[in-house]
Amino acid sequence: MKTTTHSIDHELERAVLMSLVTPQQKREQSYSAEYSLAELVSLAETAGVEVLTTLSQNKEKIDSKWFVGKGKAAELKELIDEYGANTAIFDQELSGAQVRNLEEFLDVKIIDRTQLILDIFAQRAKTREGIIQVELAQLSYLLPRLSGQGKNLSRLGGGIGTRGPGESKLETDRRHIRDRIDELKQQLFEFVKHRNLHRERRKKTGVFQVAIVGYTNAGKSTLLRQMTDADVYVENQLFATLDPTSRMLKLPGGKEIVLTDTVGFIQNLPHDLVAAFRATLEEVCEADLILHVVDSSADMMETQMHVVKQVLTELNAHGKDQITLFNKIDQCTPEQMQMLSTEGDFLRMSAYNEIDLALVCELIEARLMGDSKKFRIPVEKGDMISLMYRIGEVLENEVEGNDMVFQVRIDKQEYEKISHLLTSYATDQSLDKGENELYV
Ligand SMILES: Nc1nc2c(ncn2[C@@H]2O[C@H](COP(=O)(O)OP(=O)(O)OP(=O)(O)O)[C@@H](O)[C@H]2O)c(=O)[nH]1
Ligand SMILES: [Mg+2]
Q1: Does any ligand 1 atom lie closer than 6 A to the CB of residue 244?
Q2: What is the rounded distance in angstroms from the CA atom of residue 59 to the CA atom of residue 66?
Q3: Pocket residue to mutate for ligand 1, from 217, 259, 281, 325, most atoms within 8 A of Cβ
Q4: Ligand approaching nearest to the C-alpha of 46
Q5: Among 89, 92, 175, 251, which one has the highest count of C-beta atoms within 10 angstroms of its own C-beta?
Q6: Residues 6+ positions from 36 with CB-CB distance below 8 Å
Q7: What is the pLDDT of residues 255-285, one digit of tens each?
Q8: What domain range includes position 356?
């Protein structure tokens, strides 16, 4: 059975957008209601909706029946009539009962932020896995709201052959949806198995995995495309990318890595969506290094960075090695440039600047391959000399008297593994020559 939820009719939607601000939200959220509403406008436009006007309300707490206050609902109704709207879109998630009450009172289609995002994802999903993930997220969203769907229930299918004796329509719909969710989860599981196998194989070959993450529209796909000539979709719109794309990239030292572009994040990313996309996002969890691409020219740049950190935490990937790429500096104001953080590894760049792209490669290489260290080895120690070629990348080697001196790029783990071999021959002379120079 194929079940669809409330889908947006892209030709006809003419909407008034509504946001509610409570003191609790102000405390818990790092972004302002204005920003959130402005983003809702972009989301609605991305979904193909014509946005007529917006309305917001400050209220002590959410109204369980109407979501907004009764008076505000009446004001909304006036606006809807005035503009001839056929849809109201709410910036927060609504309960089933609130949808039903608002739908009855306003007599227009009611959509909430989560549904809007799910709808955009549904439009974008191209691969089999993407389509399954979106349907799973939609049904998980719908299931607890079924009782509130009122007249919309008819959209869920059912009919002859679907009803059990004495069973209500609602129960049949619930059962269908649960069955379908199980079926989708099983199908996703097969994809995950396949992906895990693939990843294990890549791990065995010792190829490093680097994941590109960031807020939607930050320039992730542009970066992948510019660095690898990958034919990925780049567009100035929200959620241009849904399915992860991986490409091999050769670093300056010759080492090959796999670079993966992922779905963009957004504030209040629906929980069902994160859950459904967990398998795809595992690429991020399994990566050796994360490149966090930031749109430095975005008004809410810091908020966007914060949201990305939150999602990474939700995915349990926040402790991973990271490089922050402050992208789009070509369109930054001097004030915006000053705002950029200088914490940790970072680069100010433009994905369209060749020199910056080379710097990104160098940064990745330095992070993955570690620092270069100097080793001084007496020429008769042939086994140690051959070890130099196994532990990392030999950048230089020359003979000095009775020693061979190697400059080797080596990562931390490898260095720790061989550290017990290193200091036994160290002399005062080696320490004089700098702390990286060690006798073996
Ligand atoms: N000026 C400027 N524009 C950029 C830069 N990098 C990316 N863009 C533009 O930013 C827009 C979004 O780029 P994408 O690469 O699609 O962004 P994304 O992060 O993959 O976005 P989603 O897939 O939607 O999450 C496009 O119009 C790009 O051309 C940059 O360094 N400078
Ligand atoms: Mg993209």
Answers
A1: no
A2: 12
A3: 217
A4: 1
A5: 89
A6: 19, 29, 91, 267, 268
A7: 889 999 988 888 877 777 777 777 678 778 8
A8: 206-369
